[in-house]
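Tokens for SDR family oxidoreductase. Go.
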Amino acid sequence: MNRFEHKVVIITGAGSGLGQSSALQIAKEGAKLVLVDLNPNGLEETKQQVLAAVPQAELLIVTANVAKEEEVRSYVDQTMERFGRIDGFFNNAGIEGKQDLTEDFGIDEFHKVVSINLDGVFYGMKYVLKIMKEQGSGSIVNTASVGGIRGVGSQSGYAASKHGVVGLTRNSGIEYGQYGISIKAIAPGAIMTPMVEGSLRQIGGDDWEAAGEEFIQPNPMKRYGKPEEVAYLVAFLLSNQADYINAAVIPIDGGQSYKY
């Protein structure tokens, strides 16, 4: 399929995990890509993967911290200078942060997680939405989490920030649907990405793989999701095929969020 032929898509958090797998999938479907991440090495890895699969792909690589408004504005400005429009935005960059009980959760750590996961999403929407409104079209997919629609123990900052992403998505979808813009969020569960591996290492240390097997047992499907499974969903949601899906939050979690 060439659902993104002649279209420009920005992906934040493109240096690993869901951003990297989505970049590869969307490039295969013809998009011009703007890849944004704080880690230049991760961006280079994604770039090489994309070019190996799609040698003719048009790419703009931007190293940026999404928690800084001026850097978000810069990657949007650079996109417009290079490509002149923005058709899709995978607003994906995020971190999990440390795990601790709420009473012990560090204040600086809380603000760090919220600044990246929630402020960064807001900044991206703020600057991309203005352009999409002028165009009269566009699609945004924000990365929330199962932790944004139910509680997750020992992760106050993460849960608070992802609940905020859900609220922003629903509110903005209501505001901007009239301008031909659809806004939705995905709520991944246990997807085996570097971030999830890092979380398991916090729990299990050197024995993190065994901890991971124990952690996944309550999941109805008894397995971790694959990044490419999320990429297929993101590509669909950013495409014109999903234009009427708006202000929605779509779990991709093996049924985890529905199990009590």
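The helical segments are 17-28, 40-53, 69-83, 107-135, 156-176, 194-204, 208-216, 227-238.
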